[in-house]
Amino acid sequence: MLVDVVMPKMGESIQEGKILRWMKKPGDKIELDESILEISTDKVDSEIPSPAAGFLSRIIVPEGETVEVGTVIAVVETDKASLKVETSTLGKMSGLMLASIPTVSAEDGFSAQAPARTPRKLDGNRFYSPLVRSMAKKEGVAPEELDQLEGSGIGGRVTKNDLLQHLQQRVLKAARTPGPLQRVDITELRKKYPPPAYEIVQMDNVQMKMAEHMIRSVHTSPHVEAVSECDVSKMVEFRSNNAERFEKQEGFKFTYTPFFVEAAVRALKDFPIVNSSVEGDKIILKKSVNFGMAVASPIGLLVPVIKSAEKMSFVELARTINDLAVRTRSKRLLPDEVLGGTFTLTNYGVFGNIIGTPIINQPQVAILGVGAIKKRPVVLTDGEGNDSIVIRSMTYLTLAFDHRIIDGAVGGQFLAKVVAHLEQFDFTKVF
Fold first, then answer.
1. End-to-end CA distance of the chain
2. 175-201 per-position pLDDT tens digit
């Protein structure tokens, strides 16, 4: 039996995806849910599992092509006896022969020898996909303006990202702020930076999106940072004494991250303006805490989001954090899982850094940075005013906040509340 592999709809806002690489070639045996290709959207790169066990019969859409969700991109044959590996004359893809286009019935919305949704002509002589035409109409992009765009798709086709970049450039130009990263001619660069003294590396999709996002953030929000030290000795001791018990109970390692997340979530309840965003002269206060946590992945820094974190217990937070982190590092994160964040935590302490000044993750108004936990001598004063020097496990917390709506007093009070929650943590809620 033949089973279609389609470009998945990986979120309400995702309308198309780009095939980065095929991990299997026609004729290869595949298991149910085994990763067979990697795709890229404008939000995240993800590995896509097979919808059935069997053998890869045909690859329809080659690497580098962008297609709309719902498009058939490959075919799996579940019965080995019926397997027919077909190749086409379209050329080779990463050393593999491309598969032929299958015949699909009109009832499925496809023509007999082409992928779904053939691009249609606008007023000019160029062709545009239904998605691009719809976006152009919605954003008020005239046909003449659209015809001037340089397309990055196959045959110079204007893609969704091309149009989005054009729209961003219009807005940013009007606001007199820097636009998105511009494509640079590598031939000219090689003249300026010739090999072997220099090597020129192309940014991948995620790196480009991150760079543009950070540029917009710096030019949108006036950043102010506040730094506090925090005594986490009790937390370190509790984790050390209960790490084995926790891992046996939950099946994953007991980390410090859930403690920092819960402390920040509790502080956000007391300071709702830190859990907000700004649109023009209006402040949007968010009723739910959708907590983002920066995770270093093979393709760069991603920020998966814990939705409605304020409703979760400590153990539920720990489970969700572990699940999102594992799937981020294995490229199984869905695009919707990096959307909708209202506050972010970044833990640069895992790399040994003790203090950092993170950039706000727009459209949020604050981000909490956690430094490395280090033992050092600390002066403590008892109730009678006597000082003593003791060894404590200490860390530095940095809060970067948007000075448009959060002043130094509120930022400092919020950070002090996070520190208090950590230093006075109720460990009875863990088990």
1. 49
2. 445 556 777 888 889 999 999 999 999
Beta bridge pairs of residue 297: 300
Phi and psi (nearest 5°) for 254? Answer: -85, 110
Rounded Cα–Cα distance for residues 416 and 419 (Å): 5
d(CA 255, CA 430): 12
Q: Domain 2-108 is of which CATH architecture?
A: Beta Barrel (2.40)
Q: Which residues touch 358 (CB under 8 Å, ≥6 apart)?
A: 346, 348, 367, 368, 369, 398, 400
Q: 295-346: per-residue pLDDT in tens? A: 988 877 899 999 999 999 999 999 999 999 999 999 888 888 999 999 999 9
Domain residue extents for the chain: 2-108, 120-209, 223-429
Q: How many CB atoms lie within 10 A of CB 355?
A: 16
Cα–Cα distance list, 159 to 56, 185, 196, 356 (Å): 28, 20, 35, 38
What does CATH list as the number for 223-429?
3.30.559.10
Task: Give Cα separations from 377 to 232, 234, 354, 374 (angstroms).
Answer: 13, 16, 16, 10
**C-beta separation of 162 from 145 below 8 A:** no
State whether residue 62 is helix, strand or coil: coil
pTM of the model: 0.69
Please choose, from the candidates 35, 81, 79, 27, the residue with its C-alpha nearest in 3D space to the C-alpha of residue 56: 27
Pairing of strands 366-370, 343-346: parallel
Q: By C-alpha distance, which of 265, 305, 311, 295 is closest to 425?
A: 265
Show which residues are catalytic. Answer: 403, 407
Q: Which residues contact 68 (CB under 8 A, 6 or more apart)?
A: 7, 15, 16, 116, 117, 129, 130, 131
- Do the beta carbons of residue 210 and residue 300 sit within 8 Å? yes
Over the range 405-421, which residues count as b (16 or more CB within 10 Å of their CB) and which as e? bbeeeebeebbbbbbeb
Q: Retrieve residue 119's tokens.
A: 């691009």
Which two structure tokens, joined as six digits, stand for 387? 């000082």
Nearest residue to 289 (alpha-carbon basis) of 270, 302, 255, 298: 270
